[in-house]
Specification:
CATH superfamily of the largest domain: Mur-like, catalytic domain
Strand order of the largest sheet: 7-8-6-9-10-11
Radius of gyration: 22 Å
CATH topology of the largest domain: UDP-N-acetylmuramoyl-L-alanine:D-glutamate ligase
Distance between the termini: 54 Å
Largest sheet: 6 strands, parallel
Strand content: 15-25%
Number of domains: 3
Structural class: alpha/beta
Helix content: 25-40%
Number of helices: 16
Length: 435
């Protein structure tokens, strides 16, 4: 048995097996792993770093790969040709539990919705645990006695998951992401996402995102949501936006601590997911009203002299940045100073053009994809090397009522280890320039 990858997932797999007195080998293709010290604490564990150990692959009857390693990697192509089974930690998790699973995926909003659902169910008194792509490896929650598990799943995790039978499954939305990982583009990416519905008992469908379901899924038991379409939907009444179920008004969104249409849709999807679980609607609405939002997701971090700074570092793809812009445009008086940049992962940035053409949007590009991004609207774009350079430059030209929005539409890995680090650096820079 061989574990590929020494990140959080790989270490969680190692803990899982060692707790069962099974001692797999573990391999990391890169020689750098901040978790190598963790592995050295284990007895009877052999590890290999910095290259592919083909002998270890040949000796393996099972390979558990981390999500970040593509199936097209030479090591995995070799393993596949040898007939070796390749799975991920989610498939391992599914094989080890009989507890019902709520499975949530989507290009954007899945961490927020997963947390909302978790909060609702915990407030109702159910014993639930969440894990997966949200940052808590699924295997870390496996030994907790639970009535329900809530799993946030990425397309990378779904690639190697075949026996998942969720009690409830939802694809929140699909927009271009990880195109560098999928040679066949959106068709292949969408196919991986829709796997979540294959054996689901109940499907939650976003009726206004046709990519996120197909005709076959629509004929199975389902609950629907959307801005205007769906059982759960939004309705504007006397300048107030309400969360509604069919013809029933549930909650005025003014009572939520989060704002923006994308967050209202997240709330609707959470309500759709818990719909069949016999949760008192009053409890569900109370949990939503207490929800503060997650860091780095359209997070208002600073306001001074009528200038607002927003940290939306989690916007690692085009769809998320589109949502952020849409949320601001109705309220903008001054300029939206939009910070784009990072590693675009071969995304088609032209999809942003209809959103960027607004006369009040000024664009600042940095990082690996800065030149590509600046060609969208060269006349109102500026390229800078780093996020720090960008923040310091913008600070000098700000005017009252401006909004500075970090919503990069790119991954962070060209200059940061992850979107959290990027967001934290952004917030520290804001603090530094206002001291």
């Amino acid at each position: 048995m061989l574990i590929l990858g020494m990140g959080l997932t790989g270490i969680s797999c190692l803990h899982f097996f060692v707790s069962r007195k099974i001692y797999p080998k573990i391999m990391n293709f890169d020689s750098n792993s901040k978790y190598i010290k963790n592995i050295k604490l284990f007895k009877n564990i052999t590890y290999h770093i910095g290259s592919i150990n083909y002998e270890w692959i040949r000796e393996s009857d099972l390979i558990i790969k981390s999500p970040g390693i593509t199936l097209s990697h030479p090591a995995l192509i070799y393993a596949h040709k040898k007939g070796i089974e390749i799975i991920g930690d989610i498939e391992l998790f599914v094989r080890e539990t009989n507890v019902p699973i709520i499975a949530i995926t989507g290009s954007n909003g899945k961490s927020t919705v997963t947390t909302m659902v978790n909060n609702i169910l915990q407030l109702s008194g159910l014993k639930v645990y969440m894990g997966g792509n949200i940052g808590i490896p699924a295997l870390n929650i496996l030994n907790h006695s639970a009535e329900l598990y809530i799993l946030e799943l990425s397309s990378f995790q779904l690639e190697t998951t075949s026996t998942l039978k969720p009690e409830i499954a939802s694809v929140l939305n699909i927009s271009p992401d990880h195109m560098n990982r999928y040679p066949l583009g959106m068709t292949e990416y969408r196919q991986k996402k829709l796997k979540i519905y294959n054996k689901a008992k109940l499907s939650i469908l976003n009726l206004e995102d046709e990519l996120s379901y197909n005709k076959d899924i629509k004929t199975r038991p389902n609950i629907t949501f959307g801005v205007k379409k769906g059982e759960y939907h939004l309705k504007k009444i006397y300048n107030c936006i309400w969360l509604c179920y069919k013809s029933t008004k549930l909650l005025n969104t003014n009572k939520l601590l989060i704002s923006g249409q994308h967050n209202y849709i997240n709330a609707l999807s959470a309500l759709s997911i818990v719909h069949n679980l016999n949760i008192d609607i009053k409890i569900s609405l109370k949990a939503l009203q207490q929800f503060l939002g997650l860091p780095h997701r359209f997070q208002f971090v600073y306001k001074r002299n009528n200038v607002v700074w927003i940290n939306d570092s989690k916007s690692t793809n085009i769809g998320s940045t589109q949502s952020a812009i849409n949320n601001l445009l109705p309220y903008v008086i001054g300029k939206i100073r939009l910070i784009l940049g990072g590693d675009g992962k071969l995304a088609d940035f032209s999809l942003l053009k209809p959103y960027l053409k607004h006369e009040n949007i000024i664009i600042y590009c940095y990082g690996k994809s800065q030149r590509t991004l600046s060609t969208l609207f060269p006349e109102k774009s500026m390229c800078l090397n780093t996020l720090k350079d960008t923040v310091y430059f913008i600070k000098k030209i700000l005017k009252p009522h401006d909004i500075v929005l970090l919503s990069p539409a790119c991954s962070s890995v060209d200059q940061f280890s992850n979107f959290e680090e990027r967001g934290n650096v952004f917030m520290k820079l804001i603090k530094d320039i206002h001291q």
